[in-house]
Amino acid sequence: MISTREPTPRNCESRREPPHCFHSSCIIFHSHQQCFGFQFHHLRASASRSFAMVCSALSRVAHAHICLVRRASHVCRGHQHRAWGSRPITSDFAASGAPGSVLELLGKSYPQDDHTNLTRKVLSKVGRNLYNQHHHPLWLIKERVKEHFYKQYVGRFGTPLFSVYDDLSPVVTTWQNFDSLLIPADHPSRKKGDNYYLNRTHMLRAHTSAHQWDLLHAGLDAFLVVGDVYRRDQIDTQHYPVFHQLEGVRLFSKHELFAGIKDGESLRLFEHGSRSAHKQETHSMEALKLIEFDLKQTLSRLVAHLFGDGLETRWVDCYFPFTHPSFEMEINFRGEWLEVLGCGVMEQQLVNSGLCTEESALGVRAKGNEKKETQQNKKEQERIMLQDGSDTAGTIGFNLILN
Predict the structure, then answer these.
(1) Which pairing describes strands 171-173 and 163-165: parallel, antiparallel, or unpaired?
(2) Fewer CB within 10 Å: N-end or C-end of the chain?
(3) Helix (H) or strand (E) holding 384
């Protein structure tokens, strides 16, 4: 990517779709230092003091001037943000693969071509899985998030509603990383200057959202995904080529969404309407408002669980490519508003592409009679999905900058 590219306009204010932005909308942690014996303090006494304690403790296990948690998506908001990939690594650090040679990674072989641009330094980070190393700060945060969801969101039989996936391979196909999320073939976020490619068809995931389609297609309707992700950035106080994300996804049926609502049986999830700044064309306003309320409430509870009550927070309307409407939560930390998460209602087209495929329909027909098939299709068509950073229906992006 050309380093002189103009910064992306302030899309969170204008709500226009920026041509040079790509959003992962996930919790993003950032650390490469192994740590043992670190424990969280109880975060209930003084919210702002507890927030500072967590930041101070985590900063001790990171290099000076390297942020523990990376900015959520580089979706621009004024001069503070740049579009994803606007700070590419210089060619001095890149190592293109020799066409015809083979790259060995995680027990598999990948033929190299003119798209191969992995560096030895980045390759050395693959497979470390810091978030699965006991007592590492990333592991501790992951466990606190899991604890919260396991206790707060329980199924009808008393089992956790959300399943957790923290061992998915960081090597994905370009289809998983882009096409499954409706990213156009000519979108700037696909450029070599923004990503680490093994070859033209495989890459190191740029976000954990690369696994959403597969998990939906497998029949999951509530899950958390944790993983290391890779983007070509120069190292500074806010950027590092390898960082970590935790995101969550949940689907809602009509019964789940309207349960307990007066005259809920008469309400609809979907309609043939028009798209506006507040909703998608396929969602009813009633469904949208209920989902938005649940989404924000879920995230607010999670943030309170991590940092304590009493934080001064605010919600900001924003734009992300595969959620609409989209929001960000900001926390007033030491007099500055700090973006701490991004979330939104997932584009219904993405949900349908994962659920209503020819392959899944064939699978249903093979398992039951026509009546069961019709009921199953109806149930799938009445589902709506929201994505919020690391929580019930969306994705969280922690954005704590530790100097």
Answers:
(1) unpaired
(2) C
(3) strand 384-388
CATH of domain 23-90+119-388: 3.30.930.10
Dihedral angle of Cα 288, 294, 299, 300, to the nearest 10 degrees: 120
pLDDT tens digit sequence for 132-167:
999 999 999 999 999 999 999 998 889 999 999 999
User: Could you please report the per-residue DSSP string of 208-252?
Assistant: GGGGHHHHHHTT-SEEEEEEEEE-----BTTB-SEEEEEEEEEEE
Among the residues of 133-195, which ranges form H helices? 137-152, 174-177
Alpha carbon distance 342, 347 (integer Å): 15
Coil, helix or strand for 204?
Answer: strand
Count of C-beta atoms within a 10 Å radius of residue 297: 12
Residue type, 223: F
Q: Name the amino acid, one letter, at 25.
A: S
Provide the CB-side half-sphere exposure for 32 (13 A, CA).
19
pTM exceeds 0.90: no
Question: At 176, is the secondary structure helix, strand, or coil?
Answer: helix
CB 20 within 8 A of CB 210: no
Which residues, in sequence order, are bridge partners of residue 318?
Answer: 326
Is the per-residue pLDDT at 225 higher than 80?
yes
Confirm if 329 and 313 have CB atoms less than 8 A apart. yes
Separation of alpha carbons 136 and 126, rounded Å? 17
